[in-house]
Amino acid sequence: MTFAARHEGTLHRLFLIRVWVKGASGLLETAAGLATYFVTPTLLENVVIFLTAPELSEDPDDWLANHLHGAISAYTTDTQGFLAAYLILHGVTRMFLVGGMLWSKLWAYPLSLFALALFILYQGYRFVHTHSFWLILLTVVDLAVAYLIWDEYQVRRLALGEKRGP
């Protein structure tokens, strides 16, 4: 087996692994969005109070418990609606694009690259404001995924062109 064939096989396996992971995370994201829709801010606040009360009674300055209380106070009904809609829309879109790529639909590859480019641009925008190392790491991972999608798209287009003939 040639180096090029091994390289293509390895890239294809990496592509498939990454696509299946994206599909699974899309499913989890959709489920989280549905759960978010039904979990009201009051219920969430009660759960946080229940979970953190023992710790705060021992240590009123507990960093995690106090940050959870601060975060939950900013969680409103408007936030709940936005978050639920965002998670559901993003998860369903991701599963739709993953399904298209797994079934080798050519339209799914450029559409996935476009969606990924939008997220990369947004991450760059957020980095300017937060300077978060995690955004850089996420962007590097997304760029690697974009390369795998592009490579797979080229292979699929070439295979389709060979089947059609001159």
Q: What's this entry about, in short?
A:
By secondary structure, the chain is mainly α. The chain has helices spanning 3-38, 41-58, 63-73, 77-102, 108-130, 133-164.
Please give a structural write-up:
The structure is a single chain. The protein is mainly α and 166 residues long. 88% of the residues lie in helices and 0% in strands. α1 (3-38) crosses α6 (133-164), α4 (77-102) runs antiparallel to α5 (108-130) and α5 (108-130) runs antiparallel to α6. The longest helix is centred in the first third of the chain and has 36 residues, at 3-38. It is elongated and about 70 Å long.
β-strand percent reads under 5%
Structural class estimated from helices and strands: mainly alpha
Low-confidence stretches: none
The percentage helix is over 70%
Roughly how many Å apart are the termini?
Answer: 28 Å
What pattern of helices and strands is seen along the backbone? HHHHHH
Radius of gyration over alpha carbons?
21 Å
Report the strand count. Answer: 0
Roughly what is the average pLDDT, rounded to an integer? 87
Q: Tell me about the largest β-sheet.
A: none
Oligomer: single chain
Tell me, what's the shape? elongated
Counting H and I runs of at least 4 residues, what is the number of helices?
A: 6
List keywords for this structure.
mainly alpha; elongated; 6 helices; 166 residues
Present the secondary structure layout.
Blueprint (H helix, E strand, L loop, with lengths): L2 H36 L2 H18 L4 H11 L3 H26 L5 H23 L2 H32 L2
